[in-house]
Design goal:
Elements: H1 4-11, H2 15-29, H3 31-36, H4 41-54, H5 77-116, H6 121-134, H7 144-159, H8 167-176, H9 183-201, H10 207-223, H11 232-241, H12 244-248, H13 264-278, H14 285-300, H15 305-324, H16 328-342, H17 349-360, H18 378-386, E1 392-395, H19 400-407, H20 419-434, H21 440-446, E2 449-454, H22 459-467, E3 471-475, E4 480-483
Parallel strand pairs: 1-2
Antiparallel strand pairs: 2-4, 3-4
Helix pairs in contact: 2-5, 4-5, 4-19, 5-6, 5-7, 5-15, 6-13, 6-15, 7-8, 7-9, 7-15, 8-10, 9-10, 9-14, 13-15, 14-15, 20-21
């Protein structure tokens, strides 16, 4: 019979496994927030349901009455199918579980990449937790969580010179059909090319490295065309970023507010990187370029903060390592941690069992992860199920996805969060109506709107009721339903 200590250590996980479990459970606690801070999940599930039921990807709009039949660029269809499947199997709890697994898995890869680069375990753990919580401002149940994972795989594999080139087009093929931020992969690749150029100018690089990067880039670009609309996907992704009106009116594209505590982990991570470099730590040319580049993009747009954390944390760890190696105290701490982990025999069995148990018996009530009636028009839609309204609707922008989730295909929305599809024109018309700008009544007539589901105490609700004499047929603290007489 094995010694008692061996039996105990078999069930004690390695540090990376423990890290995954801690992150996984922490993210589960964010479940209600992740579901309700953003209104797009309902649309993603609805489109995923359509794809699974009809075995076709919709290339023309089926979900709005304002742009019915217009060409749609399906840049998230694979993620939508995944969300739909998980929701059918486990409900919204399943969507939260999937999100937790992907995010925790991503930052476990961050930790393992630092170990591969010989960063101290203790330092790697601290930086990984900091990076994970820097990304928490964008922990949402949306397709972009897959970009977290693909960014980690892409960035860390590029750091490993021994990886086969064919792995990259395979990742890109999945990425381009899952989320529109696949362009981040080419940004990272561009950083490596720029780093090579710097090294070559200083006689520290060979042409072989550039040839491999060019091969990776060429093949990866080619597979981006393997999607339902081919080259038009690039037109959407680049075109949206070039539209100043849409970008400036999207909260996540705005600069981070450092008075908000949720941005402080990112700020600390960046400061640690700068401090490590200032104290003598070093980064390779491409790493310094990517650190500066992703840092600048994150200061310009908070949406980039999670990608900054994923890409650059191993670089920060390596630079800080060079500084801490001079500390005998830190070396003693690291040696103790290394001896502790070497005595653990834990495998992947415990976390796999843990995840299966959580999936079968979630550590929260079945109703815990649901759409909040204080945020979404839950009770109003309940009422509509028994009191359907005739004609086309006008709806609150952030409720569009939820209304599709509850009411489609019986009802199509005026607009939802898919601004890359609806474009500047309709988005401006929506803003014109909700802000009661000149001609707002004409916009409602243009789209044959006969009823509205909107916040009850806003200026539009008052104008429709008092000026236009629309009937308030339902009202609660979240939503009002008004019908044209």
């Amino acid at each position: 019979m094995p010694p008692k200590s061996t039996l105990i250590t078999f069930f004690l996980p390695k540090l990376d496994t423990a890290l995954f479990c801690i992150l996984f459970f922490s993210i589960l606690l964010f479940g209600p927030r992740m579901l309700n801070i953003d209104g797009d999940l309902g649309r993603h599930i609805t489109i995923g349901n359509y794809i699974l039921q009809h075995l076709e990807i919709p290339l023309h709009d089926l979900f709005s009455h304002t742009m019915t039949g217009e060409l749609v660029i399906p840049h998230e269809w694979l993620a939508q199918v995944t969300f739909s499947f998980v929701n059918t199997w486990l409900g919204l709890n399943g969507v939260v579980l999937l999100t937790a697994i992907i995010i925790a898995g991503t930052f476990t890869l961050t930790y393992r990449e630092m170990l591969r680069q010989n960063v101290y375990r203790s330092l790697a753990l601290i930086l990984t937790f900091l990076a994970a919580y820097a990304s928490s401002l964008h922990w949402l149940t949306r397709p972009h969580i897959f970009t977290f994972l693909f960014t980690a795989l892409w960035a860390y594999l590029l750091e490993n010179e021994r990886r086969k080139f064919w792995v990259f087009p395979l990742i890109m093929l999945l990425w381009v059909n899952t989320h529109g931020a696949f362009i981040a992969g080419f940004v990272i690749l561009g950083g490596h090319v720029a780093g090579w150029l710097w090294d070559y100018m200083h006689k520290q690089a060979t042409w072989d490295r550039l040839k491999k990067l060019a091969l990776i880039g060429g093949l990866s670009f080619a597979v981006t065309l393997i999607n339902p609309v081919g080259w038009k996907l690039w037109d959407l992704s680049v075109g949206y970023l070039g539209n100043r009106y849409l970008v400036d009116h999207t909260v996540e594209y705005q600069s981070p507010n450092f008075h908000d505590p949720s941005t402080w982990p990112f700020l600390l991570l960046m400061v640690l990187g700068i401090l490590a470099l200032g104290l003598g730590g070093r980064m390779r040319a491409h790493q310094a370029i990517l650190f500066a580049g992703w840092g600048a993009m994150s200061l310009y747009s908070a949406r980039n903060i999670p990608l900054f954390a994923i890409v650059t944390t191993p670089y920060i760890g390596r630079a800080a390592q060079a500084v801490l190696e001079e500390s005998s105290l830190y070396q003693k701490i690291e040696n103790k941690i290394a001896r502790l982990e070497s005595g653990l025999n834990g495998s992947l069995i415990p976390p796999v069992i843990f995840i299966l148990l959580v999936a079968a018996f979630p550590p929260f009530p079945r109703a815990a992860n649901q759409f909040d009636a204080n945020i979404f028009p839950v009770k109003a839609v309940d009422w509509l199920q028994t009191h359907p309204q005739n004609g086309e609707m006008f709806n609150q922008f952030t409720w569009g996805g939820y209304l599709l989730y509850r009411m489609w295909p019986e009802k199509n929305v005026f607009i939802d969060g898919q601004t890359d599809f609806y474009g500047e024109s309709l988005t401006r018309e929506y803003s014109q109506v909700v802000n009661l700008e000149n001609g707002w009544q004409d916009t409602l007539k243009k789209y044959n709107v006969s009823w509205a589901i909107i916040p009850p105490h806003g200026p539009l609700a008052r104008a429709l009721s008092e000026e236009m004499k629309w009937n308030v047929v339902y009202q609660d603290n979240t939503a009002a339903i008004l019908h044209k007489p």
